């Protein structure tokens, strides 16, 4: 019997400098995918609620007041608390600061970066996490390489051209399941991906959950990502 998390942290404090001019007057999670009518964070909150989450803590930073005003005026599908770092704490410190506001420190929790547009079963990811007795589980994506690839034979003749092939490497997809003990392992300041994650990996306590085949995933980093997400979601009927 798995206990599925009902609480989550959304890390929404990034500058979003590569998304300018969209982020000149709003934080990155408030950027709307053209044609969806919803900012990225609105999509994330709907997804979390559909997966059984009742409480979310949103860690704000750049233009925090714009995000807070939207959260206060929107009809939300779950309870939302916001936190703003008084001084930069780094990714790990910011995650810990937000996690300390979760309603139940004795229960597992999800986390997601505030610029991820995706849909897959978080409950299945939580079950995977539990089966491996992991302290932390990362969702893993296989992005497409933005360039065309060339295949050659052993003699050096070109045999094929492949447009935007899948990467041979899995990457951190920016969605997580954490056990209750994980919060105390985070640094007060600094980057957990250089400290906590490697330590857990050495102890075989860090698991990687490959996104299910066909699951939609995109990190919204640049204006090109916005355009491509709009086209892909339009083809899917809104994602």
TrEMBL record:
Keywords in alphabetical order: Transferase
Gene3D superfamilies: Spore Coat Polysaccharide Biosynthesis Protein SpsA, Chain A (3.90.550.10)
InterPro entries reported for this sequence: Mannose-1P_guanyltransferase (IPR050486), NTP_transferase_dom (IPR005835), Nucleotide-diphossugar_trans (IPR029044)
GO molecular function per UniProt: transferase activity
Record domain Nucleotidyl transferase: where: 8-233
Protein name (record): Nucleotidyltransferase family protein
Organism (species): Streptomyces arboris
